[in-house]
Design goal:
heterodimer; A: alpha/beta; B: 259 residues; mainly alpha; MetI-like fold; 81% helix; flat
């Protein structure tokens, strides 16, 4: 298990049962083994209720496994959380409406005890990264859904965590904004070289973004397929390339097989 | 700025003045016996004729209202903070608050007078405190506890402590709830103070002024004292609103529908 070098995430024998022993017991995840190399972009995809979000939250130590273990950067997931190794972004931006855009991005830095000036500088740098510098002093209610998600991503990256965990961050956006955001995220990924774990239920999104697509089965969630994606650099034309559609087909087949089995 | 104020206040003024006019005209036309319901013009005349007396009474009642309001708000907020932070406090103090609220509080006025002395302000202040505390407690608790899962999980992902979550998320989240309750409480405080004064406390206050004038069938003068109480309630409401806007700059201005 420890033979892999520079493993960002290493999961072994992981199971998660909610309400164990009660009539409403739910076996969410079973026998998950997964290793994610540092700097890779991995997507988790599966039918709704397959436990992909739960898996992400287990990596982020927001919930704890019933069996098995999760290691992040050679530490327990909990220790990694306390060391602030994660940045997280969710489907709803989770921006605080009483804080301006800058103040939202500064929040994690404030918790880490950074000085005012350091916070300000980093927030400006992050806003530049997500191309929202002119909105620094706006409040979240004055922004569109896509802009809010960009602020949320800027906030998640502000303290330079080694790992970015994203739970359907573009799920609530319209198709055009979504495609635009995907390009932005890839751009940020290239610039920052983070490890990204990305939960989605969109097959094209998973294929376009990732180097690796993990396909999960319906409940109890297991890893049904682990599909490498090699499409080279993503450009506008990538979405129209035959290889892109081949990959989509491959992922869809993996999901269909599971659909029939379940 | 002024024209915008006029535009936003105009509908309310028209309805208000129209209502008064209707009241005035109806009484002048139908001419029922004057002491049952005096026309607004006479109430206003009495208000200025007895202004000195009403002003002193308003100041004395105002003292009870403001001190009781401040006391009740502090009690409600502290109670809400405890209940939202500690489970034990929630299990013990929440039922106590509900039980306290279930008491017909005004009915306590004569008992409080026996406790604190018939002419003591403490009895009336206590009535206002208990009356005000509950809406503040209930609303503030709601604001402190109704925080989205995403927000809490985000804070945990930053390894924030419960105290930091309370200070940076729960308290700001509770602000709109708190101010809603403050607006309710400010009107309740005026009602509570005046009714409590019917039973005791200083005799040169609005409550006794209403009771005495009504007892002497000086209904117009009684109405003038009621008017003073209403004005006090309106001023407190407007102050709460101003305080609200000043402490929450992130909220949109209330009158944005026209823009």
């Amino acid at each position: 298990m420890t033979e892999t070098v520079s493993c960002a995430v290493s999961i072994s024998g992981l199971s998660k049962v909610f309400n164990a022993g009660k009539p409403n017991e739910v076996r969410a995840l079973e026998d998950i083994d997964l290793a994610i190399d540092e700097g890779t972009f991995v997507s988790l995809i599966g039918p709704s209720g397959c436990g992909k979000s739960t898996l992400l939250r287990l990596i982020g130590a927001l919930t704890h496994p019933t069996a098995g273990e999760v290691c992040v950067n050679d530490k327990s997931a909990d220790q990694a959380r306390l060391d602030r190794d994660y940045g997280m972004a969710f489907q709803t931006s989770g921006l605080f409406k009483w804080r301006s855009v800058t103040e939202n991005i500064e929040l994690p830095l404030q918790l880490m005890g950074w000085s005012k000036q350091e916070r300000k500088d980093r927030a400006a740098e992050m806003l530049d990264l997500v191309k929202l510098s002119e909105f620094a002093d706006h409040y979240p209610r004055e922004m569109s859904g896509g802009m809010r998600q960009r602020v949320a991503i800027a906030r998640a990256l502000s303290f330079r965590p080694s790992l970015l965990l994203m739970d359907e961050p573009f799920g609530a956006l319209d198709e055009m904004t979504r495609e635009h955001m995907q390009t932005e995220v890839l751009d940020i990924w290239k610039k920052t070289e983070k490890t990204i774990v990305f939960v989605t239920h969109s097959i094209p999104e998973a294929v376009f973004l990732s180097e690796r697509v993990i396909v999960m089965s319906p409940r109890p969630g297991r890893i049904a397929a682990d599909i490498p994606v090699d499409l080279g650099e993503r450009v506008f034309e990538t979405r129209e390339a035959p290889e892109f559609f081949e990959c989509i087909t491959e992922v869809r087949e993996a999901l269909r097989f599971e659909g029939n089995a379940g | 700025m002024i024209s915008r104020f006029v535009r936003s206040a105009a509908p309310a003024l028209i309805v208000g003045l129209g209502g008064l006019l209707l009241w005035e005209v109806t009484l002048q036309v139908l001419q029922p016996e004057g002491f049952v319901l005096p026309p607004p013009s006479e109430i206003i005349r009495a208000f200025f004729a007895d202004f000195d007396e009403i002003w002193v009474a308003t100041k004395n009642t105002g003292f009870i209202v403001v001190t009781g309001l401040v006391g009740g708000v502090i009690l409600g907020v502290v109670w809400a903070l405890l209940v939202s932070r500690f489970r034990l406090a929630n299990e013990t103090l929440t039922p106590l608050a509900i039980a306290l609220n279930a008491i017909p509080i005004i009915a306590l006025a004569p008992i409080f007078n026996a406790w604190f002395g018939l002419l003591s302000p403490v009895s009336n202040q206590s009535i206002v405190v208990i009356l005000v505390f509950f809406p503040v407690f209930i609303n503030t608790t709601k604001g402190l506890t109704e925080v989205g899962d995403t927000e809490i999980e985000l804070m945990r992902s930053y390894a924030a402590s419960e105290w930091e979550i309370a200070r940076l998320v729960r308290v700001p989240n509770a602000m709109p709830f708190f101010f809603t309750s403050l607006k309710i409480a400010s009107s309740l405080a005026v009602i509570g103070a005046i009714v409590a004064e019917y039973f005791g406390g200083r005799q040169d206050a609005l409550g006794p002024l209403i009771v005495q004038n009504a007892g002497l069938t000086r209904y117009t003068q009684a109405w003038a004292a009621v008017l003073a109480g209403s004005l006090m309630g309106i001023v407190l409401y407007l102050l709460s609103g101003a305080f609200e806007r000043a402490s929450m700059p992130w909220r949109p201005a209330p009158e944005t529908t026209g823009s």
